[in-house]
Amino acid sequence: MAFHVRYYTDDHDLDALLALTAAASTSGARHGYYEPGDVVWQLFQWPPSVFDPAEHVWLWRDDDEPGAPLAGFAWVDGPGEAIFQLHPRMRETEQGSALLDAMIMWSEERARQANATRMEIPALADDALYDAALQRHGYTRGKPSEIVFQQRLDDPIPAPTLPDGWTVRHIADLAEYDQRVELHRAVWRPSRVTLEAYERLRAAPLYRPDLDLVVVSPEGAFAAYCICWYDAANHAGEFEPVGVHRDFRRRGFGKIVVQEGLRRLQALGATLASVTPGASGNSEKFVAAAAHALYASAGFTAVNYWYAYSREWGSDQG
After folding, report:
1. For the chain, what percent of residues have pLDDT higher than 70?
2. In angstroms, rounded to a whole number, what is the distance separating the alpha carbons of residues 68 and 64?
3. For 151-305, which CATH superfamily applies?
């Protein structure tokens, strides 16, 4: 079968991405690389001048006709870096292997055009389909890069205990947007997130103001934050991102904001919550270790791992 690939263009493509990731996150589907909240966060966290979806998000379909079902997508973080997601129906047939082959070869060609001499693609530890495809193309599995944490939300979640005068709540109004953006930038510096991008995010699908939480000191300082995403179709919640200002670390504020997020997700009907932290980007190793300890303390259990698969080629190869 010939697959048709094109770049992301409009809200119809966003709807298709959300539908695919929701299908890949259903109960029993263990190989979802992006959840619906990941799609929205990655598309809207930066201003258009920084992140152009047409450069980073590519869609594969069985047919090139408008409305043809989405078979999979590639999220290109940069030259030589890509994440693939197949629709679950593709995994059940030989077409899944053929699609992965097409995605790998397409990604390598784009990397070469950008003068990259290395390609890195993640795969879950138990994803035999991805592992076989990547090995066919000469990739080597490296160390774990991310950990998938989950927890069931079957039992009542107690309200977090805060120091006197502290509160945990959602962002109250427009006057707090700047402070909220500065908190994110302080946690993930250097960061490209701007006030403009944050305002776009708040208008995006799936975003809920009541799930954009901060821990606030008696003096009004923002110490920690998280955004929760609720996938109503799967009764599932996701945390992306989560952060604690370096001036307030090791005081339990990360657990407090996550615990409040779990309570709010459960109240909406979520029966499962997930988060996937890692030591990627600008996170130092000790930050990643602290994140893993945080989620374990909040009741999460590691259920899977992302591994980085890589392949190198000489600069003279075209």
Report:
1. 93
2. 7
3. Gcn5-related N-acetyltransferase (GNAT) (3.40.630.30)
